[in-house]
Structure formats: C-alpha cells, structure tokens
C-alpha cells in the first residue's frame, strides 16, 4: 500500500514537470512566431547552472546517505562506534563524490550543454 502512494506521487510529479515543460516550449514557439521577445524565459546558461547545481546537491545527499550506511555497517560488523568515524565517513564520501563530479564535468562538459 505504501509503495502505491509513493508511486502515485512520483507519477504525479513527473506529469506536472512534463506538462510545464511542454507548455513552456509551446509558449516560446508562439512568441517566436509572432516576433516577440522571449526574455521572460530563463537563458540557457541559467538552465545549465541549475542542472549542475541539482547534480551537486544530489551528490551531497548521496554522500551523506552512503556515509551513514557505511557507519551502520562498521557498527554492526566491527562494533566500532565513535562519533569522529561517523562524521569523517560522511565528509569523506561526500568529498569524494564531489571531486568525481568535478572531474566528470571537466572531462565531459559537453553532455550538459543545451
């Protein structure tokens, strides 16, 4: 039952995003056909910045989750429970993921261009 509710919310969110994207493109196309200015819509650089910011935020949250999971494994299997290990794992995994993201963007930046 719980998965159905989560599934419905995800589908609803994706539907709203899809409709807003389609509507935005139709509005831009209509304005361009009339010869009007489309400055009300965000620029491509802003959209690129938003994409990279979302990716960075996702990696920070993923790093926190993996750090917590590794801390749980250390505690369950090796009975190591120290607060410094807990914090160090979170920061280490998060930093590693952000460094990998930085390297990925340096090598494959053209994937994010519009």
Classify the beta-strand content into a percent band.
under 5%
Order of helices and strands: HHH
Shape, please?
elongated
So how many helices? 3
Terminus-to-terminus distance: 40 Å
**Computed Rg:** 21 Å
The helical percent reads over 70%
The low-confidence runs, each spanning 5 or more residues with pLDDT under 50, are none
Number of strands: 0
Estimate the mean pLDDT confidence: 78
- Class from helix and strand fractions: mainly alpha
What about the largest sheet? none
- Total domains, how many? 2
Can you give keywords for this protein?
single chain, 114 residues, mainly alpha
Can you put this structure into words, describing what you see?
There is one protein chain. The protein is 82% helix and 0% strand. It is an all-alpha fold and 114 residues long. The model has no long low-confidence stretch (mean pLDDT 78). It starts with a helix and ends in a 7-residue tail after the last helix. The protein has helices at residues 2-34, 44-78, 83-107. The protein folds into two domains: 1-41, no CATH class; 42-114. The longest helix has 35 residues, at 44-78. The chain is elongated, with a radius of gyration of 21 Å. It is built from three helices and no strands. Helix 2 runs antiparallel to helix 3 (83-107).
